[in-house]
Amino acid sequence: MSFFSLQALTCDVGAFHLHDISFDVGEGEYFVILGHSGAGKTVILESIAGLHGVGGKLLFNGVDITNMAPEERSVGFVYQDFALFPNLSVRENIRFAGRYKFIEDADSLFNDLVDFLGLEKLLDRRIDNLSGGEKQRIAIARALFSRPKILLLDEPLSAIDPTFRNAIMKFLKEMHRRYHLTTLHVTHNFREASYLADRIAIVMDGKVQQVGCANEVLSHPSSLKVAEFLGFKNIFSSSLLGEDSAQLFSIDPNAILVSKENNPKCDYCFEGKLDECMGIVDHLNFLLR
Amino acid sequence: MYGNSGSFKLFVTIGKEQFFVKVLKREHEGCAINRGETIYIGFNKKDVCYL
Questions:
Q1: Residue B1 confidence (pLDDT)
Q2: Computed from CA positions of residues A69, A206, A2, A184, in that sequence, does the dihedral angle turn out positive or negative?
Q3: For chain A, which residues score pLDDT lower than 50?
Q4: Which terminus, N or C, of chain A has the lesser number of Cβ atoms within 10 Å?
């Protein structure tokens, strides 16, 4: 029995339709839902949180929570725009869950979150003029203060200055370990997914296209559609390799050797014409003394 | 500080297909092959990903 399970979940939001979404999430797993904007990722999170009426089943430890009220689901939700309460102070935002449920060891949890997230100096401030990074840490603290069984993160890095993204990714991983979380993280960014995810579900057009271990999904797409989404290059028919098959293959641009002479050391060699050579500056080196 | 491309990006036509190839710049001092010239590309079975 899995810790958390979506079974043939369907949901209609306006003209958008989720089709039979099914996957399992193990306890303590960092699970990433990867897909383009408009693929249905946020609707899946909102369905798990109980914000939409759904078909199919949602199970926590085998218990059907499909029709349970949002506040009874023990889910922590960090929205893309953080959705903090503007009329409350930082302290009141973080402790909000204490207004509607009993929080075990609330004071020690609060102090630990404030310490871990570096929020001590912000506690009596209002939300209005905080930076994106500060708002994000407060939104995470608010979600964790409710002691959720599962933490839902909706594009947590999209509103963050790109300069800080690597540091925030590292922080998310540390947080996941420190609080023994089960995390569902939605993103369109492959780098985030490959660094953070234990397992990945690729969602396109309201459907799950592939689910599996992060390395397996990112390096072995199950279809042309997923391969194109993941940015695979050099997708050709296997007949190019002399194989009698309609199957397609892809070869990583970094795995191709080039030579002015025929290279006998490779399994497959081709003669061609150079169309273009681009030496584009794509990063800067700093020499420090 | 200096601008640096991590790799050369080559577009190589083989019959009707065009391959995209990345060559580490640190392994090649300049792109020694000119546009339109014959070039050989190769790869191994272990690197082929079937879809």
A1: 44
A2: negative
A3: 285, 287-288
A4: C
The answer to whether A251 contacts chain B (CB < 8 Å) is: yes
Tell me if chain B has a CB within 8 Å of the CB of A274: yes
**pLDDT value at residue A263:** 67
pLDDT of residue B25: 74
Q: Which residue from A minimizes the CA distance to B34?
A: A274
Whether residue B4 has pLDDT greater than 70:
no
Report the candidate in B3, B36, B48, B43 with the shortest Cα–Cα distance to residue A236.
Answer: B48
Read off the pLDDT of residues A221-230 as tens digits, 9 standing for 90 and up: 999 999 999 9
Name residues 210-249 of chain A within 8 A of B (Cβ). 219-224, 227, 232-236, 238, 240-241, 247-249
The whole-number pLDDT of residue B5 equals: 56
3-state secondary structure of B33: coil
Contact B42 A259 (CB under 8 A): yes
Strand-pairing partners, residue A8, are: none
B19 and A232 within 8 Å at the Cβ level: the answer is no
Query: Which residues 6+ apart lie within 8 Å of A92 measured at CB?
Result: A85
Q: Where are the alpha helices (DSSP H) in chain A?
A: 41-49, 90-94, 106-117, 132-145, 165-178, 190-196, 214-219, 224-229
Alpha-carbon distances of A79 from A186, A214, A288, rounded to whole Å: 10, 23, 40
Residue B31 has pLDDT above 60, yes or no: no
Beta bridge partners of A34: A187, A202
Closest Cβ opposite residue B9 in set A219, A223, A280: A280
Q: What is the pTM of this model?
A: 0.84
